Amino acid sequence: MITKNIVKQPKSIVEVTVTVLWGDVQTMWDQTLSKMAGEVELPGFRKGAAPLPMVESQLGTKLQDEVLKAAMPNFLIEALKGTDIVPIDYPKYDLIAFTKGQTIQFKATITNKPQVVVGNYKGIKVTRTAPKPVVEEEVQKIIDDLYKRWKAKQSSAVSLQSSATQNQNTTGQTGSISFQGGQTQTQTPANGQTEGPDDVFAKAMGALSLSDLKTKVRKDLESNVSYNNELDYEEAILQEVEKITTVELPEILIGDELNRMLVSLQRRVADMGLLLEDYLKSQGKTLEQLKDEWRVQAEKNVRMELGLAEIARSENVTITDEELKAEIDKIQDAKVKAQFEAQEPRLHLRHALRQTRTLDLLKKMVGG
Q: What is the CATH number of domain 2-113?
């Protein structure tokens, strides 16, 4: 028999004090002792053959610790049955009292799944802005940049070929002086073409002609503009969800979001060829100062995430096992795909797919 005392604290923290009578612990104690006895070797006895009372005395607090490691989580689960408490982190256990033959008493501190209230999400009003048209100057800039890189590669190839030819011509000479002449002739295109992007360059880029290349570049730019415009529209909807979401944010969720933001920064910094420490020095900030600056945004992100999840619950948005498997099957990288054999990555992916489907549902409701 167990007794419990549940005290709810601010920010979804819950303290659960559990008292367990010895009768509910003894079986676990005896089983743990027998298991550990098989690895104990005492003078005068073969390994695992010593009497249990002697083994128990030899193990001391190790036996108690091993029993508590298994007992406390089991008794906490029992204590939470029939309550509205859903832990979202690993409990922190504090032993209050443990007397063999009498009782065990411990306190577990957990973060409860917060209560989320979302306002009238069906009445969200967001206007989808028209994508900005792609102008000729933007197309030409891409063409010019591609041409400069292509021309640089061409020049490098010519230089290498010229060096190889010169080495062949000087084979057999002694000393370091070349008598081939010091003037360099500048070649001009045989067909009289002027410098600049042309069909030859365009074909090297995989197009049929320069005109075809410009068309392809324009389509890519228009596709990119459309994609970013859609992201802006979705972000506007999510910001409205955040505004109408009421929740007491658990500290652990804010901390998780700050860590996610930090990982994202580390990747961007690494792309620039820098270490995070060097980047922070260049900004004159410490890691803690950076997190302090991010905190307001992190809270908004968590509120937005929880609000969207609550809408998913209200609208009964689900991802079936078949849909989850189909998404995993799309992954081409074998190593990445293998990661989803574990339960936790599958849970994260299912959640992400559910959030995406919920956002799609909101977009239909908003109808902007």
A: 3.30.70.1050
